Amino acid sequence: MTVQLNQAIGKVPPNGNPVVANRYGADPYALVFGDRVYLYMTHDALEYDGNGAVKENTYSSINKIAVISSSDLVNWTDHGEIAVAGPDGAAKWATQSWAPAAVHKVMEGKDKFFLYFANNASGIGVLTSDSPVGPWVDPIGEALILRSTPGVEDVTWLFDPAVLVDDDGKGYIYFGGGVPEGEYAEPGTARVMMLGDDMTSVVGTAEVIPAPFMFEDAGIHKREGIYYYTYCSNFYDGERPEGSPPAGEIAYMTSDKPMGPWTYHETILKNPGHFFGVSGNNHHAIFQFHDEWYIAYHAQTLSKAQGIANGYRSTHLGRLFHNEDGSIQDVEADYKGVQQIQPLNPYQRVQAVTIGWSAGVKTEFEAAAGERLVTDIDNGDWIGLSGVDFGSKGAAAFSASVISLEGGGMIELHLDDPAGLLIGELPVPAANVPVNQLELKTKVTGVEGTRDLYLVFTGNTATPLFKLVSWQFMQ
């Protein structure tokens, strides 16, 4: 049977950006824990008008935070969405969940995780968990920061948190934004505040960060004793004094203390429109992973490729370089992304929702399986994994855990391209009703060394073929 392969949209091999193409994700924030980096993102989801056409993103119904993670920065595991706000969310008092910030702290010998979020622009909440992927609970049952919080009465937008746990264990939260009428050059709406030891309370009074042309998007990182406060500049279209940040760019300030005083330097990341031809707001997070520095940012590249760039944003990664004097070099945003930092091991169980590139598929949580699966699999769909290390001995067999559907079909295993060298085929039986998970196995030949791997899904019918839970090679 000749298979018409579906095309990758947005994230196209061998590029690393946007980091995933099966979902949107805005306002990224990075948490490094163990050997993985977790990205928490505003869960942009398509909105439709009365005629069924995609309309401009209003952000008004976003009440979830999306989570993905990776150990190599190219292949990403989709952990789904955290139900944050509203009747079905952990924080029932909140109506929205925008621009998350996540942090880890060891408390009484145990790992604790804290997820801060903006309830639109009216306050900031916090959730807690014993795991970076949840489950999450609301420890205080109300907002952490409101207009009644000391020092924030005049903040236009109470949103966009960033959090730092310093070397001494003390926590700090950075937030705020907006431009009071006519105050473009000195909005005075950026804030920093000390967190309580419990990370779910605030201490004292919020201090002003005098960020020039401040708009939104707090960021914080510490390197060699220097604290870097980063933010997005506003879109004032009048004349700006020399040395001021241009519109919609990521700028930075430094201090030798977590709450200032601060010195303004310059911008380091131009607006997405400069790089990708589709403008919009700019939002970022800077983090260290395996001794190297990175910046996560968003742009409307996926939605642009889909022909619906109406405010639906996707997360991207780039390298960040500090100079010897502590200054930061300009960041070049691109589709290429960052280098894969370690190979993927195919000889341990790989969740199917770990994806480098994909075409046509979705991911969904399956209650019966107790985990997230690759779904909506049709003839010609595929997923690709970058840099899979089969070793010098090579692989002899491939197994997969699947849930059969009416269509059934085949998993074809190809190297380096969806139409590349075929090393094995795994038939998946059809089922008139969904059955329990099946463990299927087949022989493979001709694979060794480090290669890109493509799982190509084929079948004779227009009905969904099967759901993929996980896979693994054997030597």
Termini separation (Å)? 29 Å
Helix/strand-derived category reads mainly beta
Q: Could you describe the largest sheet, including whether it forms a barrel?
A: 5 strands, antiparallel
Count of distinct strands: 30
Please tell me what the overall shape is: elongated
Describe it for me?
By secondary structure, the chain is mostly beta strands. The chain contains two helices and 30 strands. The protein has helices at 272-276, 301-305; strands at residues 26-33, 36-42, 64-70, 76-83, 98-107, 110-118, 124-129, 162-165, 171-176, 190-195, 202-209, 214-223, 226-233, 250-255, 263-269, 284-289, 292-299, 314-319, 350-351, 354-355, 357-359, 362-366, 371-375, 382-389, 397-404, 409-415, 421-428, 438-443, 450-458, 466-474. The strands form eight sheets. The chain has a five-stranded antiparallel β-sheet, with no helix packed on it. It is elongated, with a radius of gyration of 23 Å. The two termini are 29 Å apart. 49% of the residues are buried. The mean pLDDT is 96.
Quick structural gist:
The chain has helices spanning 272-276, 301-305; strands at 26-33, 36-42, 64-70, 76-83, 98-107, 110-118, 124-129, 162-165, 171-176, 190-195, 202-209, 214-223, 226-233, 250-255, 263-269, 284-289, 292-299, 314-319, 350-351, 354-355, 357-359, 362-366, 371-375, 382-389, 397-404, 409-415, 421-428, 438-443, 450-458, 466-474. With 475 residues, the protein is mostly beta strands.
